[in-house]
Amino acid sequence: YELIKSLLIIINSHTIPSKTILNIAIIAVANKIITLDITHTEYTTVLALAALALALGASNYFLKNDLEEK
Predict the structure, then answer these.
(1) E-strand stretches of the chain
(2) DSSP helix/strand/coil, 16
(3) What parts of the chain have a pLDDT lower than 50?
């Protein structure tokens, strides 16, 4: 439901909603991590997903703080 709601916001928006796009990326990475078969996955893939999740989380934090200041 959250993904469909986010896509509708993007379609109906006249500007690029960075917060919505970031939320879609977080949902996609979380879905990948949840469905990952850890026994057949190389450690480099797990580390890359962890780094990506950390980067998206940090981006979300800083973007949220930036939007609250305005």
Answers:
(1) none
(2) coil
(3) none
Stated length of the chain: 70
Rounded distance between C-alpha atoms, residue 30 and residue 53, angstroms: 8
Query: In angstroms, rounded to a whole number, what is the distance separating the alpha carbons of residues 17 and 49?
Result: 24
Alpha-carbon distance of 67 to 31, in angstroms, equals 26
In this structure, what token pair is assigned to residue 41?
């996955």
Whole-angstrom Cα distance, residue 59 to residue 23? Answer: 10
Contacts of 66 (CB under 8 A, 6+ apart): none
* Model confidence, pTM: 0.78
Longest dimension (CA), the chain: 46
